[in-house]
Design goal:
Blueprint lengths: L2 H24 L1 H9 L5 H10 L7 H8 L4 H35 L6 H14 L6 H7 L7 H27 L3 H8 L2 H6 L13 H20 L4 H21 L3
Helix pairs in contact: 1-8, 1-11, 1-12, 2-3, 3-5, 4-5, 5-8, 6-8, 6-12, 7-8, 8-11
Length: 252
């Protein structure tokens, strides 16, 4: 097995899954479903829903796990969100929304049973230390139909990669706001609640590149314990295909 080939396939699968799940998380239809479920602020529904698997904890704890959100704003959204359905109820509601979105917009995608089978092998084999959101979502029951299940397993694997990335980021010493600026820039940082003025991060570009490399290396190790190179490349292709179907079907 070529380390480079494995890392390339893992990065491709991770990128496709991240974009597919982000499409669900940030779509107006998802926000509308959260409002219909009783969350006046759909972002509070998102925070309580995604973080609900951590249990009935404090906003400060959730902010420490989410890492890249401005902590005070994240804490306020958590407090507002859990007041509606509690933590467990929020997670269940969000998981049902995830399933419904996949059911609706991945219905005509090909290869979903295979995507699910490969993904679930990784999910079952992956360690849970240092990745609390992954551990929480892995324990949630999966939908029985392939389209709904596909978005759910991609969601879980997204949390796995996100947790690994946050661990690497923490070790690197790059602050969350710096990571935003190095990743997608000031506008992206503002979306996550960070106020100006922003720090100069020019001297940390190489270190951030090392964080990305470390994330992909560790994910290659984790996935390599469950899948062969050929299977990982297949998972990347199937994930990219699912993303394309989602993009074609989801209203702009």
């Amino acid at each position: 097995m070529s380390d480079t080939d494995m890392t390339t396939a893992v990065a491709a699968a991770g990128a496709a899954m991240e974009q597919a799940v982000s499409t669900f998380m940030m779509h107006p239809e998802t926000f509308g479903a959260s409002v219909a479920a009783g969350y006046q602020n759909p972002l509070a529904g998102y925070v309580a829903g995604r973080g609900g698997v951590l249990g009935q904890t404090s906003g400060a704890v959730v902010a420490s796990v989410f890492v890249v959100f401005e902590p005070a704003g994240l804490t306020a959204l958590w407090d507002e969100g859990v007041a509606v359905r509690g933590a467990e109820g929020a997670a269940q509601q969000y998981w049902a929304q995830t399933a419904e979105f996949g059911r609706k917009y991945l219905a005509n995608a090909q290869g979903l049973d295979r995507l699910n089978a490969l993904s679930e092998r990784v999910i079952a084999a992956a360690p849970t230390w240092g990745v609390p959101l992954f551990a929480g979502w892995r324990a949630m029951p999966l939908a029985q139909d392939a389209p709904a299940r596909a978005l759910q397993v991609m969601f879980i694997l997204r949390e796995l990669r996100g947790g690994v990335h946050f661990d690497a980021l923490t070790v690197s010493g790059i602050a969350p706001i710096e990571a935003h600026l190095l990743n997608k820039g000031p506008e992206y940082a503002q979306v996550f609640g960070w106020p100006e003025p922003f720090p100069d991060v020019t001297d940390k570009k190489d270190r951030y590149a090392e964080v990305e490399q470390a994330t992909n290396r560790r994910m290659a190790e984790i996935i390599g314990n469950a899948l062969s190179l050929a299977e990982t490349q297949e998972l990347a292709r199937l994930s990219e295909d699912a993303l394309q179907v989602l993009r074609a079907n989801v209203p702009g």
